[in-house]
Amino acid sequence: MHVEPLSEDDRAEALDTLDEWDYDEARDAITRRFTFADFSEAFAFMTRVALLAEKANHHPEWSNVWNRVDVLLTTHDAGGLSHKDVALAEAIDALLG
Amino acid sequence: MHVEPLSEDDRAEALDTLDEWDYDEARDAITRRFTFADFSEAFAFMTRVALLAEKANHHPEWSNVWNRVDVLLTTHDAGGLSHKDVALAEAIDALLG
């Protein structure tokens, strides 16, 4: 299913709002590193993100080393950032309270 | 806790036994890519590996993109491969039947 990429204005607004996320220009993606007390906490977070992702039918590219989780969001079907990434980033941020 | 790295002979034997795993010489690590039907299956596998890892108190470096899981095993406290990596790799392989 084709998804429209964000317009320049919408991208700028999204990056302004998602102030904990970094912009990866090469991928037209947003990234954020999350650090927890230990692996158990990190994987609990990943499980919650997995549920969000499956519900949204939009999935992160992510990696985990011990207490650290690196998340990259982009939309392959849009060739870059779309509203799906903004929505998932906001939902992930909301997990952290 | 310091862990002894594998001897040359033990490393060679381990790499011979773990024939689905590749050797990353730069990291003195073993890696394996797992591919599933979809994200749900991939994350179910990750959850099972997380339980194994926590039980063994030895954790992978790993990443996931949709249906793909890339696992790298090495032992930081040993500066490379140790018996912990061999045991975890065998336990992961055993999940796949």
Brief synopsis:
Chain A is α+β, with helices and mostly antiparallel strands and 97 residues long. Chain A has helices at residues 8-17, 39-56, 83-95, and strands at 22-24, 29-35, 61-65, 68-73.
Provide a descriptive summary of the structure in words.
Chains A, B: Its EC number is 4.2.1.96. 2 copies of one chain form a homodimer. Chain A is of the alpha+beta class and about 100 residues long. Chain A has 3 helices and 4 strands. Chain A has a 4-stranded antiparallel β-sheet with strand order 1-2-4-3, covered by helices on one side. In chain A, strand 1 (about 20-25) and strand 2 (about 30-35) form a beta hairpin. The mean pLDDT of chain A is about 95. The interface of A and B includes residues 39 and 46 of A. Strand 3 of chain A pairs antiparallel with strand 3 of chain B.
Summary keywords:
four-stranded antiparallel β-sheet, alpha+beta, 3 helices, homodimer, 97 residues
Blueprint (SSEs and pairs):
The structure is a homodimer of 97-residue chains.
Chain A: H1 8-17, E1 22-24, E2 29-35, H2 39-56, E3 61-65, E4 68-73, H3 83-95
Antiparallel strand pairs in A: 1-2, 2-4, 3-4
Helix pairs in contact in A: 2-3
Beta strand % of chain A: 15-25%
**Largest pleated sheet of chain A:** 4 strands, antiparallel
Report the span from N to C terminus of chain A.
32 Å
Number of strands of chain A: 4
Q: Are there runs of chain A of 5+ residues with pLDDT below 50, and where?
A: none
Most extensive contact: A-B, 16 and 16 residues
